[in-house]
Amino acid sequence: MHSELETIVVTPEEMAGIDRAAIASGIDGYGLMEKAGQAVAAAALRLFPGCRRFVVLAGPGNNGGDGYVAARVLSDSGCPVDLYGLGEPAPGGDADCARQRYAGPTLTLGDYTPSSGDVVIDALFGAGLSRDLDASVCALIDRVNSLAVPVVAVDLPSGVDGRTGQVRGAAFQAQHTVTFMCRKPGHLLMPGRALCGDFEIFDIGIPGRIVSAASHHLRVNGPAIWRMSLPQADPSAHKYGHGHLAVFSGGPMSTGAARLSAAAGLRAGAGLVTLLSPAPATEVNAAQLTAVMLRQVDDIADLEALLGDPRLSAFVLGPAFGDFEKARAYVTALRGRPLVLDADGITAFRDRPEALFEIYAGGDGDLVLTPHDGEFARLFPDIAADPGLSKVERARKAAAHSHAAVVLKGADTVIAAPDGRALINANAPPWLATAGSGDVLAGIIGAHLAQGMPAFEAAAAGVWRHGEAGRRAGAGATAEDLITVLNGFDQI
Question: Domain spanning 3-216: which CATH class is it, in words?
Answer without folding.
Answer: alpha beta
